[in-house]
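Acetoin utilization protein AcuC
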Amino acid sequence: MADDVAAVVWDSALLDYDMGDHPLNPVRVELTMALARELGVLDRPGVQMITPGQASDLDLTRVHRADYLDAVRLAPIDPFFTGWGLNTPDNPVFDDMHQASARICGATLAAAQAVWHGTARRAVNVAGGLHHAMPARAAGFCVYNDPAVAIAWLLENGAQRVAYIDVDVHHGDGVQAVFYDDPRVLTVSLHETPLALFPGTGFADEIGGPKAEGTAVNVPLPPSTGDAGWLRAFHAIVPSVVRAFAPEIIVSQCGADAHRLDPLADLRLSVDGQRAAYVAMRALADELCDGRWVATGGGGYALVEVVPRAWAHLLAVVTGDPLPPETRIPQPWRKLAGSRRPGTTVPETMTDGTEPVVEPWPGTSEDAVDRAVLATRTAVFPLYGLDPHDPRD
């Protein structure tokens, strides 16, 4: 394995996944890459830039039905097209939709291939993370499911145990659905409770199919959960189940929409808390998988204030040392961001001014976050021989 190499998969053509006047605006990805470039992250020693192609139909049909691919190709040229979850307010049709969606999948696939083949230890596609797409249906702004496509490729190419960790504010329902009955794939999702937020799934009792119990792990958190509660929940569940599962590689979806400024959800994380989550996932990969980690982006709708900073931190964690939180944002980027979204408050530093602390889970508590943690641990931990009530497990 190339110990000192990290792959960043990028091409401006990834910005063609553009639904128009829509929350999922590709400017967030453009600004992320521009900020990482201004901060020198992309010029670090050992950074390998990979230009992706489109995923082939063979790659896509490991997850998606062939007739769904046909529908995605047809939808932009048929003004009366309906069905398959397409041509809706959430999933509007746009020109060259198949090609743009297949390129997103090709980028995450290229990241997974680089790590699996050993040409890079870690890899990232910030344009990816479209985790809601189902085998035959678009959903939640997602046409094709790039994390699932990459995981399916890994399984076909020899991987026996893949852990998927999803920290988007929305449940990673598409990836869970694809692998719900497959004991080779562990899906772990921390998200705002489905009682309050799309897609309405991701309860603690969703634990995997009859031959894969324990390989779906869901941590539904109450609205207004901030850094302290979110990180307490993460560390009370994720390291234990991932260690017990013993994956060969970790794939992550790092949606930035759990931030307190995100307009579409109600968790209250800071950029600093999100940075801490990325550091924790890299540490797990280093501990368990010889460093093998594939990271993707995901949701995030505070297009200037949050997403570029969060994912520039992600790019830094993937490619080397984390950026110091107090890092000043270069003026050329602030000018670019202001020009792209006039009237938006452009941040000046890479921190929200907080210092997240990981508090130990107390085991029993009337706090709503701690009750959610206990529900998840009760549902899953015994399946791994762990004690759901013992904070040491």
